[in-house]
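Protocol step 4 of 5: obtain the predicted structure for the target chain.
Materials: sequence only (see below). No template structures provided, no constraints applied. The aim of this step is simply to have a reference model before the mutagenesis design in step 5. Sequence pasted as it appears in the construct record:
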Amino acid sequence: MTETEPLQVEATGETVGEAKWSALRELEKLQPGIDKAAVQFQVLSEGERGLLGVGYAPARVIASVEASAVAAAPAAPAEEGELASEVRELLATVLEAIGVSARVEIHEDDESLVATITGRELGLVIGKHGQTIDAIQYLVNAIAWREHGEERKPVVVDAAGYRERREATLGTLALRSA
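Step 4 output (C-alpha cells):
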C-alpha cells in the first residue's frame, strides 16, 4: 500500500450492517489502530432474504479508508531504554521466525516491562493453553536477564489481552471449585 492508495476490503453478511461490521474487523486485522470514523462504505448489494431460504443472496459492501487515517506503526521511541529496545528486537525476531506479522508495544514502569503484541494470527503466538506465549516470555526473560543482570525487571509478554482473559478464566474456575 502506498501513501496515497486507500486500503480497501470487501465483505459480506446477512444484512448490510453485518457486512459493514465484518469489513471493519478485516480492516482492523490488516491495520491495527485504524481510525474507524474515517472508514467509508460502498454498498454493492443489499442482499435478498429469499423465500424459505431459496434465492438467498448476502449483502456485499466495500470498506475503504485513506492511508492518512491509518495509524503508522510506531517505531521504537527515542526515550526507550536499553532493556525495552532489546525486548522489542527479540520479539521481532521470534515473530518473524514464527511467520506472524505483528506490532510490539512496550510499556515500562519501575517494577516491570510489559510487551503487548497486536496483529493477525495471534493464535500462533499464544499456542495451545498459552504454552507458546509462556515459552516466548521465558526465553525473553532469560536473555534479557543474562544481559541486564543489574536491572532485573520481569518482562511480561501478552498478545491480544490473553493474560487478562486467562486470569479471569482462572478466577472463575477457582470460585466454582471453592
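Step 4 remarks: The chain has five helices and six strands. The longest strand covers residues 7-13.
Proceed to step 5.
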